[in-house]
Each structure stands twice: as structure tokens, then as C-alpha cells.
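Translate structure to sequence.
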């Protein structure tokens, strides 16, 4: 429905009072309704004063509008028209003025004349109040002077002109709007057809919820459409097959703004309401729906296609796998030409696949021995049904190398693309005989190995009855083979004493699927010496039959040796205990007199050095140094004894490792100066750890003494101390004699002294038993650290390192 722009005619009474200009233009916006969407068009209103009673003056007073045709009618005749009216119909003004009701009706399209006449009659029958009500609008078609058809929207108002009734008609060309309206109707009809089809599921997803869904979308899933629209994202995802959910979630995270050009295309599976799996082919596209971004989803059921495709792929893979691994030759011919040949077939004939690729059935027949070359060989009957029963042929062929082979051929017709296709299987009997010979040889070898085995090998059924055994079985049980076969162990004569219950338990365990471990059993017969055997079971398959193999090893000699070894171990433990006690007791006994000697000589040197002559002083110094060395040795022996006994305990406290290193260096300052060594230190100002201060000082002193002792005079010793992560790293590097690869394993072992007769640069006073590094290693490890040595070889120096954790908590 189109509303005319000229639709308000008002009398001056009550409407024009106070208006100086009789034509006042008023603008307002109206919604013009069509069958399609709502449009907003500017409408123009005029107020017509009653004093304007001349037709020409009336029309001339109306402002011109290029889209509105205006015609004035009086006494059944058109008395005037504006230029748009002339342009729309193609008639001149004079032609229009001469038109009365009879001629004017001919301008109207024949199919619309009745409705137009009825509308016109209704207009003439209206009362004077008509102008105060909504104007009447009529849509109809006209025929222009050139014969073209146009759609017009016509409205009219009654008025009084020169004392007579007149009608003011205005019209708007709506031809384009009608075309658009018709197009929209047609498109809506097409859209309705698409939406109601049962080929494609169509839905619109917006804000993670289905806003639109056609009936077929619900049929695909088995759920009602209205129920699906209420689903949350989680409910939607639960209907997706778990293996396909990742691709759905991946696309859900992508931006769905139509400006980005979002599209998606993939196949996925859903779980329908009955619980079945349905394959869907999905296409998605970002759209604007109700003014906001959404996604148009199209889903096609491709379950049959996917199942057929997978069946086809599976069948093809199975055929390829079978064909390529078959022991028989396979040839497929179509219209008598070879379309497939496997490797085994080419091997049988002695040719390559490429050489046989262009062969026909006749080529195959020519390779058959002339005496076996019948017409019907390797051919199905002409009237056979597809697929037909196979046709068997036994014949000989002459291979490429001239050898004669005996084959069995089995030919059948198969359906492939509607053409006559024949499948032939070739079995080389010569290869089969060779295989049978190999099997016999293998059985003979197996039997020989079994009979020659020193272990008893017994074959039993799943009930525990013995089916076969070897000669060693008879020797172990001292029974002839005939008294063993077809019996169970519990049926052996009672003079044979053994733990039959243990054997039965082991057998039952292996039959229940439990892991089998060898069991040692003692066997005794009468007054004979006992035998010790190791028994083990395993399940095996022979000719598709499940059996149990029992293997028995005679371990009597091994058992006797074990008993002797156990006795020797007991003796060695007693000797080791005696050794440790002797060393510990000797060390304790030596320590008391050594302390007396060491303390007395120390007193003489410090208190009476001015009263003692040089000769006596030298002797006392020798005694003092020897006593000091012996005291250190005894301390190390006692420390090693405590370590062996597990009596090394720590007294951890917070301490500064930097101060500890400096104290150890100061303790050995005299020796360092005497040997003219250069000490280089790389240490932080402070480095606190939780450790046993006495034990750590013992380790550092041992390592510094070791470097001094093994470095020639004038050497350089570098000490580094730093923190790495939650550990303290100590490193001492010397320029001394170094360590060879053979010597490295001896370090850190008890009494691991390395002999170096070829080099006399070491300080004999600092030499020892080799216990220093052994003790250091145990102290570091009990702190939770590591200690090791590095060297590039003889005379290239050595580096000793250890790490211990910082240990913020004292334990």
C-alpha cells in the first residue's frame, strides 16, 4: 500500500485562519507500507484555501514534484494535469483534457478496469466528510500512449470548485516497486521451498544458541527443533562425537564477524537421540542476522557415503594387503587385458610386473606347457553368472628361465564396473613341496635339538598330562620314557620324592595367566643322592593347540657350589669383622702413646727451644713431625672405621664456607711457604651454608693438602668457591703431577694410594694411607653432595670438585 503525497485538502474554516500565505507547506515523515520491508519516505502536505476556485489557478498553485502526477476532474472530464501526469502517460495536456469517463477508462489495463471502476464509484458515493478521513488509495496498471504498462498508486480527494464538485487525483509510478515486490515474493517462495526440503539441514547460530532451524535439522539429530533451540553450548557439544569435538571447538573460537569472511567446511559425526552415529558434511558462513553477527550452518547427511567410502577403502586395503602378501599369484583381467598382477605371480612366471603389465589372457596361455594348453584353461564359461564358482585347472608352465613349474589355477568372474572381469589365483606346487620338505627338516632339527638338550623338556596338555619328553627327562627322574608319557606328576611312583605340590602350583599359576618364575626343587629316589633341579613352565601353541612346555635344568652342581660359597661368605664376614676390630683396637691403642709423644715434643720445641742444643733440637723435630704424621694416620684409620660401622654423624650449623677455606689455608701456610706455592682464590665475601663445620674443614684440608703434596715447588694452586642454584661448588686446581685414566678409578677408595716412583716431587710428610679422599667422599655424600676429580693426564695437573646443598633448614 502506497500513501500518496497529496492527501490532505482542508477548507479555510478553522484551518487557514491566521495564515498569511494561503499555501503553507508542511513536512512530516510517514512509514510507507508495502508487502516487503518498511520504508521511510518524505511526505509533503498542502493546505488548499477555498478562495482558490479556478482549476488552472488551483493546479498552478500546487508546487511541482517530479514524481507526483496531479489531475483535476470535474463534470466527468479531466480539466487539467500537471507535467508529471503528462510525462507518466505520454499523452499531451489537450489529449488528457478531452478524455471523459469512457476514454479515460481505456488508459487502465483491461484486467484492472473492473476494480478501478468499483473504486471510482465508491469515491463518488462518499459524503463530504471524506476529506477529513484517511484518503483512499488504489493500485492499478495503466497503458501509456506508447503501449507500455505501468503500475500506478492513485489517490483522490473531493473538493468544491466554482460551486461544483470536483476531484483532485494524484498518482505515483510504482512499477519498480511492484517488480521488487514480485521478486521478493518469488524469492520468499524459493526460500520456503529450500527451508522445507529434506536434503540440507539449515540453521542459524547466534550467541552460542540456535536462532533458526529448519525441520530437517531436527530430523538429522532426532530431537525436536524447539528443544534444540533451548540447548546450551555444553548440551550441543555433548551431541558431537568425542573424536570430532576438537574441530568443532577450534571453529567455535574463531571470530564469526561477517567482515572477516569467516567460512568453515569439514565433516564430523553427531550422536543422534537414538544413540546412532550420523556423519554430516558441514558448511558454515558468517552472516548478519537481525542486525547482529551470526553463523549460517548447512549440514548434509553423508552417513551412507562415508560408510560406503570406508567400506570401500577397507576392502581395497584388505585386498591390497592380501594380494601383496599372498603366497599365491593373483592376476585380474578385464576384457582379456591384465589390470592387476601381484609380486608373487610375477615371481612364479619369472618376469617382472612391468614386463607382464601389457599381457592379455592369450599371453598367459602361451606360457602354459603345450601339452596342457587347452582352450578352456584359465577361462570361465561364457554363460557363467557373476560371481561364478571358480574353475580349477592343473597345468605346467614354462618360466622365463626355461624351468617347468607345476601350478594350480583357480579362475572366477567378479563384478568390476560392469565389464567382464576374471580373477585367477596361481599356486606353485613346486614351492609347496619345498616348503613341506623344509618343514620336515625343521621337525627333524627340532627333534634332534630336543633330544640332545642337557635340560629335560616336557610337553603337556592343559590338563597337566605329559604328551612327550626328551632323553634328559628320563635321566633326571631315572625313569624310562614309557613310564613318563601319558602320566601326570602325581602319578609317578612314590619312591620318587619331590615337592609335587610346588610343581602343581606352578602349573596352575601359568594356566591362570600369571608370570612364571623358575622354582628350585629337590628330588630324591630311595638311597640315591639328592638332585636339585630348576623348574619353569611356559604356554605354547602347536598346530593351533594350546600346550604347556616344562623345562627342567639339573642344578645339583651349582647348588653344591652355592652351599660352599655360603660357607665361605660366612667365614669372610667373620674375618672382615675381625679385621675391623683389629684395626680399630690397634688404632685406639696407638693413639694414647702417640698423643704423649706428639704433645711432649711439641712442649719441648715451644718451651725449651733455647735450652736445647741444635743437634737435640733436630732430633726432637724429627720425632715431632713423625708423631704428628702418625697421629694423623691413626685419626684417619679411626675415622674410616667409624664410616664402615655407619657411625659417622653430622652436627650441622650455619657456617661461612669462605672463612672455612681461609682457615684451612692458614693451617697449611707453613708448608705452602716452604714449597713456594702461589695460592689464587676466587671467592665471594660470604657464603653461608648449613653443614658440619668440623667435617667440612676436614674435607677442605684434605683436598688442599693433596694439591700441595702433588705439586712441585713453585707451583700454582687455584681455589674457587661459588654458589650455583641451591648448591655450593668448591673447586681446587693444581699444576702438579696429574692423574691418568687408569688412576682415576682408584681415587676415593679405601687405602687407594697411587704409587708415583717416577716423580719425587711429592712431600713425604704429607703422604698417607689414601684414606683422606675416602673419608672426604663419605663426608660429602652424607651431606647430600658429590665429589669428583678431573685431569687431562700425567704432568697436566688435576682438579678436585665437590658440591653440597645450601640446606636452609638444619636437620
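Result:
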Amino acid at each position: 500500500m502506497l500513501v500518496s503525497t497529496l492527501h490532505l485538502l482542508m477548507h479555510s474554516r478553522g484551518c487557514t485562519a491566521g495564515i498569511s500565505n494561503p499555501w503553507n507547506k508542511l513536512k512530516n515523515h510517514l512509514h510507507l507500507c508495502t508487502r516487503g520491508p518498511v520504508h521511510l519516505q518524505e511526505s509533503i502536505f498542502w493546505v488548499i484555501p477555498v478562495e482558490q476556485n479556478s482549476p488552472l489557478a488551483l493546479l498552478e498553485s500546487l508546487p511541482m514534484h517530479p514524481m507526483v502526477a496531479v489531475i483535476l476532474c470535474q463534470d466527468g472530464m479531466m480539466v487539467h494535469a500537471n507535467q508529471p501526469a503528462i510525462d507518466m502517460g505520454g499523452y499531451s495536456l489537450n489529449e488528457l483534457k478531452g478524455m471523459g469517463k469512457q476514454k479515460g477508462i481505456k488508459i487502465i489495463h483491461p484486467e484492472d478496469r473492473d476494480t478501478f471502476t468499483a473504486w471510482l464509484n465508491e469515491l463518488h458515493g462518499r459524503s463530504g466528510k471524506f476529506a477529513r478521513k484517511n484518503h483512499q488509495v488504489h493500485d492499478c496498471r495503466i497503458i501509456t500512449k506508447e503501449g507500455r504498462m505501468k503500475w500506478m498508486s492513485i489517490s483522490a480527494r473531493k473538493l468544491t470548485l466554482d460551486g461544483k464538485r470536483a476531484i483532485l487525483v494524484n498518482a505515483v509510478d510504482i512499477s519498480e516497486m511492484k517488480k521488487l515486490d514480485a521478486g521478493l515474493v518469488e524469492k520468499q517462495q524459493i526460500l520456503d521451498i529450500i527451508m522445507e526440503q529434506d536434503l540440507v539441514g539449515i540453521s542459524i547460530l547466534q550467541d552460542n544458541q540456535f536462532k533458526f532451524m529448519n525441520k530437517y535439522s531436527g530430523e538429522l539429530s532426532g530431537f525436536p527443533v524447539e528443544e534444540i533451540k533451548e540447548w546450551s553450548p555444553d548440551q550441543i557439544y555433548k551431541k558431537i562425537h568425542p573424536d570430532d569435538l576438537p574441530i568443532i571447538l577450534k571453529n567455535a573460537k574463531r571470530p564469526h564477524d561477517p567482515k572477516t569472511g569467516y567460512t568453515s567446511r569439514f565433516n564430523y559425526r553427531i550422536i543422534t537421540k537414538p544413540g546412532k552415529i550420523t556423519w554430516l558434511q558441514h558448511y558454515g558462513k558468517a552472516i548478519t542476522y537481525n542486525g547482529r553477527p551470526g553463523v549460517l550452518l548447512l549440514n548434509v547427511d553423508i552417513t551412507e557415503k562415508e560408510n560406503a567410502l570406508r567400506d570401500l577403502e577397507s576392502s581395497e586395503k584388505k585386498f591390497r594387503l592380501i594380494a601383496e602378501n599372498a603366497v599365491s599369484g593373483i592376476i585380474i583381467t578385464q576384457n582379456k587385458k591384465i589390470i592387476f598382477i601381484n609380486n608373487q605371480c610375477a615371481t612364479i612366471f619369472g618376469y617382472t610386473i612391468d614386463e607382464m603389465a601389457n599381457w592379455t589372457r592369450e599371453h598367459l596361455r602361451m606360457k602354459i606347457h603345450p601339452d596342457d594348453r587347452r582352450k578352456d584353461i584359465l577361462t570361465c564359461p561364457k554363460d557363467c553368472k557373476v560371481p561364478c564358482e571358480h574353475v580349477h585347472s592343473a597345468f605346467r608352465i614354462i618360466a622365463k628361465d626355461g624351468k617347468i613349474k607345476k601350478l594350480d589355477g583357480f579362475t572366477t568372474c567378479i563384478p568390476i564396473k560392469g565389464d567382464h572381469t576374471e580373477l585367477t589365483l596361481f599356486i606353485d606346487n613346486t614351492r609347496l613341496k619345498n616348503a613341506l620338505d623344509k618343514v620336515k627338516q625343521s621337525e627333524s632339527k627340532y627333534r634332534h635339538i630336543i633330544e640332545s638338550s642337557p635340560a629335560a623338556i616336557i610337553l603337556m596338555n592343559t590338563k597337566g598330562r605329559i604328551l612327550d619328553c626328551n632323553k634328559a627327562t628320563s635321566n633326571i627322574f631315572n625313569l624310562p620314557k614309557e613310564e613318563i608319557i601319558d602320566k601326570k606328576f602325581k602319578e609317578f611312583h612314590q619312591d620318587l620324592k619331590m615337592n609335587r605340590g610346588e610343581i602343581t602350583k606352578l602349573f596352575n599359576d601359568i594356566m591362570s595367566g600369571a608370570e612364571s618364575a623358575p622354582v628350585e626343587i629337590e628330588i630324591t629316589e630311595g638311597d640315591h643322592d639328592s638332585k636339585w633341579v630348576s623348574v619353569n613352565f611356559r604356554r605354547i601353541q602347536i598346530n593351533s593347540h594350546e600346550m604347556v612346555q616344562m623345562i627342567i635344568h639339573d642344578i645339583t652342581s651349582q647348588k653344591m657350589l652355592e652351599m660352599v660359597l655360603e660357607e665361605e661368605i660366612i667365614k669372610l664376614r667373620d674375618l672382615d669383622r675381625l679385621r675391623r676390630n683389629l684395626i680399630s683396637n690397634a688404632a685406639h691403642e696407638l693413639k694414647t702413646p702417640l698423643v704423649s709423644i706428639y704433645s711432649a715434643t711439641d712442649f719441648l720445641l715451644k718451651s725449651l727451644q733455647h735450652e736445647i742444643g741444635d743437634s737435640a733440637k733436630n732430633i726432637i723435630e724429627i720425632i715431632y713431625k713423625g708423631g704428628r704424621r702418625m697421629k694423623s694416620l691413626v685419626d684417619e684409620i679411626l675415622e674410616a672405621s667409624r664410616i664402615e660401622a655407619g657411625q659417622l654423624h653430622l652436627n650441622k650449623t650455619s657456617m661461612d664456607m669462605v672463612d672455612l677455606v681461609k682457615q684451612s689455608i692458614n693451617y697449611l701456610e707453613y708448608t705452602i711457604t716452604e714449597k713456594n706455592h702461589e695460592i689464587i682464590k676466587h671467592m665471594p665475601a660470604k657464603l653461608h651454608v648449613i653443614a658440619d663445620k668440623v667435617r667440612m674443614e676436614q674435607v677442605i684440608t684434605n683436598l688442599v693438602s693433596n694439591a700441595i703434596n702433588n705439586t712441585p715447588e713453585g707451583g700454582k694452586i687455584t681455589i674457587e668457591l661459588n654458589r650455583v642454584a641451591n648448591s655450593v661448588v668448591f673447586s681446587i686446581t693444581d699444576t702438579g703431577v696429574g692423574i691418568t685414566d687408569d688412576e682415576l678409578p682408584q681415587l676415593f677408595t679405601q687405602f687407594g694410594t697411587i704409587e708415583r716412583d717416577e716423580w719425587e716431587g711429592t712431600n713425604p710428610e704429607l703422604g698417607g694411607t689414601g684414606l683422606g679422599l675416602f673419608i672426604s667422599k663419605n663426608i660429602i655424600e652424607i651431606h647430600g653432595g658429590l665429589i669428583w676429580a678431573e685431569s687431562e693426564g700425567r704432568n697436566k695437573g688435576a682438579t678436585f670438585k665437590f658440591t653440597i646443598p645450601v640446606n636452609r633448614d638444619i636437620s
